[in-house]
Predict the structure.
Amino acid sequence: MNIAILGAGGIGKAAARIIEKKKEVKIVATCDKRGYAIDEKGIKPRKIYSLGKNESVAKIGKSSSDAIGEIIKKSNVIEGILITLPNLPNEFIPSVAKRFLKNGYQGAFSDPLKRTQAMKIMFEMHTFFKKTKSTYITGTGATPGLLTAAAVLAAQSFIKVDNVDIFWGVGIANWEEYKGTIREDIAHLPGYTIKKAKSMTDEEVEALLDKTNGILKFHNMEHADDILLKKIGVVDRLNQVSVGGVMDTRHAKKPVTTTMTLTGKTFDGKTSSHKFMLGDETTMASNVLGPALGYLKRAIWLKENKIYGVFGSTEFMPMVVR
Amino acid sequence: MNIAILGAGGIGKAAARIIEKKKEVKIVATCDKRGYAIDEKGIKPRKIYSLGKNESVAKIGKSSSDAIGEIIKKSNVIEGILITLPNLPNEFIPSVAKRFLKNGYQGAFSDPLKRTQAMKIMFEMHTFFKKTKSTYITGTGATPGLLTAAAVLAAQSFIKVDNVDIFWGVGIANWEEYKGTIREDIAHLPGYTIKKAKSMTDEEVEALLDKTNGILKFHNMEHADDILLKKIGVVDRLNQVSVGGVMDTRHAKKPVTTTMTLTGKTFDGKTSSHKFMLGDETTMASNVLGPALGYLKRAIWLKENKIYGVFGSTEFMPMVVR
């Protein structure tokens, strides 16, 4: 798999760390806001994850004010694209994907996108992706992603699903490694918007975290698990799906065990719940990027089998990447 | 979905009960050893599940010493075939599937097959299925099936999987409803073979159950979860997967919670376990036939998309059947 990683923040670097342990994946391109690197023979993952907090991909490649444009020029060497860009605003990631296709790229994409509104924009491009013979799987992280897919499996035992409850625990020893992700999460807090969260300085984020002793609690998050599960018929209404969680930005230990609970009615009239629980020792990096790579391999497989379009992570099993 | 159900024992009847609650499924054919029923307009599920213990499908259709042969003659009305025949001996179900294809049937199959040896025979027919433009998904029950697919999801978070442990609990109020299934399970006990289990009279089964107060305990069962997980690279060796369980043949309440535990190493050097747990109130019928129908819909989808061959339940997500 010759892949590009768009975005080299905490999530992009974590992807590089995982790929370092995978024999079948080669990173041939990567970029951030300020620069890009392209190498058909492969960019060593270490080069990417060793970049310092304030260093750009430009350091291992070239500077550019249009890094995406530079990668598009060489996109013929890319089989699959892993998108690890911060999705602020909602239109950003969909517009990047569209730009690749408009410039003649035919390939596969995987994107651990979270927001419902952003995913709606992605699904609107289904016909365009079909026409351009490309395949995009969206919502390929942990939630939506791994846990949402587990809900599809759990739903199999029931005639009617009452609700799907996803509650995650995340522990991050040092929030500065995941600036983009944490700002995206802050945008889910009452009184905040995407715009407001994005415009916060690091000091302002720090001040917010100080008030809560580094703990952020989330309820009824605008996560796209709901539309992904409604799209394929696991639920009839979006409000049957709820996503919440607790993030500790000062300790690596998870404050709660991440659990997907699906409750439904069986054909013989019983109410019961299946559960999928993630081991406490596994990090957000493992649970987001592992699935995102597995889904990228699936997206490449789908494209090879002439199945084009924009699909949710609930529609296919991710593949094992070795 | 116009489907055939081959086999009308406990498992076939449970399928009919579930299908009664599904708008998009129509049973157009069914059979057992002694007879068959075919109706393009649909056979009422109630007719099938209301058959008494010693009654044959012949009662609602016609007698025949070659019921499968009669269904094959009319197979042009069948989109998908759900196989709920007891698989004793190992060659039986594969030979039935092969017979359909040899007689010109092109379609989709789902089979909650359990035994490793039987599944190996199925996978040997991959090329034949490809040639004849048909799609077969095997191991589509609970284990292998639902729980094995959950292992594929769980594996996504890890660089290396140490082991997959599936331990099930089943409670059956009245074993006589599931004669075939229980004989298949008895064959897994130390000192028993498939041949020996099949030749046991009901009285002999009763006598065996009396000795253990109706409880049967199983360890290291020859379940095909191992080859399904090895085939797609979740594990390297078959002995990394173990399946066991406890069956109470006298109480509907499960003696233990059915749990899939996957333990692995993360990219950052941690050892951890993800778990998938089935609600205690859900029965074998729900957890086997729900997934089997979901996979049948997926098999039909794959065939429509020109993806032919014999696949494991670990290779695709089952679809939601409404």
